[in-house]
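SEVERITY: medium
COMPONENT: batch folding queue
REPORTER: lab tech (J.R.)

DESCRIPTION
The queue accepted two submissions in a row. Attaching both inputs and their returned structure tokens so the on-call engineer can compare them side by side.

ATTACHMENT 1
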Amino acid sequence: MEHEDEKERRGIQSIEVGGQLLTALAKSGGAMSLKQLAHEAQMTAAKAHPYLVSFGKLGLVSQDPVSGRYALGRLALHMGLACLRQLNPVRLATAAAVELEQRIHHTVALAVWGNAGPTVVHLEESSHPIHMNLRTGTVMSLTTATGLVFGAYMPARMIERFVEESMHPDAFPHIIGERRNWQEMQPALAEVRAHGMARAIGQPIAGVSAFSVPVFDHNGHIVLVITIVGPTGGFDPDWDCTNARALKETAAAISADLGFNASAH
């Protein structure tokens, strides 16, 4: 039985070897000479060339007729776009939220930008009780950690208009957190950008603390925010604490799955 399982897992070695060339091209972000490409794929130029010829016939790579440099081809582009269309940020983040909660033992909330602002779409609750009315569908104000991340990374003009509209007390009556005007928010938004995350320690919700980080798509646009929430008494507030690092790692992994290239933004 073990022999049959191993046989089913056995791949085609030549495809795996050639795949190293495609991986090197994808990581480079630009065209490469045969020598450079072979070096990055850890093979000789003589070994790499036949693979590139075949990939060229398939449209996976293209070669500039003047410089001779290689780049990803039209088929690779179509495959990438098809993959991106199939990706669902919330679905990816929901699976990651389960793993994150099991790792840090704090409640994990996922929020997207809805008609009324930052809206919770998934909640992975921990055994540590938090004294706040947080559930799926809850709308957070821009002064919460979740809201500050949206405020820091969404288009400024859009957020400014939203802030001015939401200042009216009857605009969004069920919103969690206080309201501030646009100018009052600037120092907090600058802090978020400086740290790459937002922190709320016992405010604006007494007894509750949180860290929030953004998730970006392949265009560098924020698509959702992941927040960890816990009782202030048992919540490490250090920007570089274990929980904060775990949260950042989770968000970075989801962003990478969505095609985000941090070095390009």
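ATTACHMENT 2
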Amino acid sequence: MTEADLLADFIRNARRAVVFTGAGISTESGIPDFRSPGGVWSKMKPIMFQDFISSYAARREAWNRVFNRTAGWTGAAPNVGHFAVAQLVEMGKVSSVITQNVDNLHQDSGVPEDKVIEIHGNASYAKCLNCGKRYEIEDLRPRWEAEEDITCVFCTGLIKTATISFGQPMPGKQMALATEEAARCDLMLVLGSSLVVYPAAGLPLLAKERGADYVIVNREETEQDPYADLVLNVGIGELMTAVMGKL
């Protein structure tokens, strides 16, 4: 059997699958990952959440990165891997997509907003840290160009991209939803995650503990490979295209 046959069998037998995605699914769209050589954090230091809160200079640097697209997290298009996941959701095979990515590409590929659980936030818009009001990035550009400290027009709270920064609390609602989905699924399909960032990386293990089949698709080995029922060290797009042709 081919690798696509093996994965297709797991998906075919599942009634309630969950897809868990990391940077590896989006690198095929040209978005850099975080930790590998040449990744985002090898080129620039992350801005800690507490520094963003306490320092205008840190906030200014954060907004410079947003408007100069230094990190490269936005502006890309979904690839065939994203579209395959969207098709699995549409077919009713996948109940939700838990993603560590902040690039909005699952939504752009057609996954309904309420089926995407973003545990590390979203870089395509901003939010007030105090009242939660959403702001579109481009609407904030004039204030950045004027070198203003970008604050909420309603409550004067600080505005930040809707990503979860280092040192920032994980989003409680999203983590609760992700935990529930992991506990209820009968197949956990990891696509493109190194599975080293916790608490997110604990979700696939929870699914396995609750009796779900566990499949990891990632170009490199992960620490969780010994717990998986199937590990495929291949590219996601080509594999998922072949899998969809067999379902």
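NOTES FROM REPORTER
Residues 172-184 form the longest helix (13 residues).
No errors were logged for either attachment.
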